[in-house]
Amino acid sequence: MRRIQFIELHEQSWFPSSLRHGITDALQFGLNLSKVYTPIASLVLSVLDRTPSRSIVDLCSGGGGPWLDISQWFPQDLGDFHILLTDKHPNLQAFQYVKAASKNHISYNSGSVDATKVPAELQGFRTMFSSFHQFPPEEARAILQNAVDARQSIGIFEITKRAPSTIALMFPWALMLFILTPLIRPFRWSRLFYTYVLPIIPLVLLFDGVVSCLRTYRPAELCEIIENVSGIGYQWNVGEHSKTAGRLQITYLIGSPEPYVPPH
Asked: Exposure check for the chain: N or C terminus, fewer CB within 10 A?
């Protein structure tokens, strides 16, 4: 199955922000409920252990991503550990909710942050969850090149895959919104309206979920992108990770200035 560079509706500049925020809220809720990214906590820690900074700069954070769940698996003695949420179209209400729930481990940048041109003052291990697939190869390469130029580590993590079994999972997830929407926080009346009266949010999530699968890079394709990134003394590791049988495999790409040692 070839990668298809199609559009996801909610990431378009013309898409109404109220609907976009409702969708990113639902995506974050699903990530935290399923705890699908929990297995990569060890990979994140392996990078933090080899970098001078305990800071994480999360790019394309959407509604906050899986950090509320992942951070709970980190040791209590991690020191000045801190996560900064950023996005090109920041969902500030969701960011504020995540910050309050994180006991000050998570904060956010209220401005627009472009993953291809991260401001120099945002220093730390850069992470991207379920968002790298949104970028065509040249922009994806620019994201990695920007990290290399800034001498910052970067981690890309994706649970979607160009496989019929993964695409099929998008349908029950969209239907589950009709049951789970009242539990999603922060609460929004608009989310109820666009789920139960005009079911735009479930339909867009279904469409964008299928498109996400079709756009996701395979490990070999990530390696091809890396080959076009220039820089000296930068180490890359690409693979698929899952600690539990039957769970979705997480495709990952981790890059870091030497002497980073790849995870096993």
From this structure: C
For residue 250, report the phi and psi dihedrals to the nearest 5 degrees. Answer: -105, 115
Q: pLDDT tens digits for 65-80?
A: 899 888 888 876 666 7
Can you identify the CATH homologous superfamily of domain 9-257? Vaccinia Virus protein VP39 (3.40.50.150)
> Is the distance from CB of 129 to CB of 66 less than 8 angstroms?
yes
Report the alpha-carbon distance of residue 69 to residue 185 in Å, rounded.
15
pLDDT of residue 50: 78
Return the domain boundaries, the chain. 9-257
Q: Note whether 61 and 31 are within 8 A (CB).
A: no
d(CA 208, CA 74): 31
Give the containing element (helix H, strand E) for 13: none
Would you say 108 and 85 are in contact if contact means Cβ atoms under 8 Å apart? yes
- Counting every residue written for the chain, the total comes to 264
* H-assigned helices in the chain: 17-34, 41-48, 67-70, 92-101, 137-149, 164-180, 189-192, 200-215, 219-227
User: In this model, does residue 262 exceed pLDDT 70?
Assistant: no
